[in-house]
Amino acid sequence: MLNALLITGTDTEAGKTVLTTALAAYWQKYYPQRSWGIMKPIQSGIGDREWYQQVFTLEQSAEEITPLYFQAPLAPPIAAARENRQVDLAVVWQALSELRSRRDFLLIEALGGLGSPVTDELTVADLAGEWRLPTVLVVPVRLGAIAQAVANVALARQIRVNLKGIVLNCVQPRSDAEIADWTPPDLIQSLTNTPVLGCLPYLDNLNDLDKLAQVASNLDLETLQS
Hints:
By secondary structure, this protein is an alpha/beta fold. It has eleven helices and eight strands. The chain has helices at about 15-30, 50-55, 60-65, 75-80, 90-100, 125-130, 145-160, 175-180, 185-190, 210-215, 220-225; strands spanning about 5-10, 35-40, 40-45, 70, 105-110, 135-140, 165-170, 195-200. The strands form two sheets. It has a six-stranded parallel beta sheet with strand order 2-5-1-6-7-8, sandwiched between helices. It has a two-stranded parallel ribbon with strand order 3-4.
């Protein structure tokens, strides 16, 4: 069974937090006997760490959820420079390795998109590849999504990211026709040679964990585990 999963996206606001929350709700509901954890390894400004602490009862400290935190809501190298600090990836790797060893399953939400900078030299894709993290790419359902999916999968392939699949996400209410026209799964799979695991509907209440677990159960999780 998959031990860890990195959730990244084509860009910011793609729906990484929605997918991470849905998968956590699914794991909590259907695997109550197994331990799990959540990480937002690097965070700039208030956001996802605080959300996960609010919606889940986590046996994790704030530092275990987010080992590297910066005040300004900017890209990490820029936020770190404002505080006269460095983006110390050794701290992140140690925290991730320790938590992963103590959990049956670990969800890791990346910052920004797959091409977002982590340091002056490295992107999220670089870390996913170097740390050999199984990865899912979230693609928002909107005009231009096909090109975004193709470009991001090309980046992942170039850096040898273990990309398990793509999840489409409705960032706004979308009709079936809009989903079919803007993010046709068969075309995206054909162009990227990457499985589309499903489409998350627009969710206006992320506090409804039962609904989130149901939504996650509709994804092709068997392919994700393979």
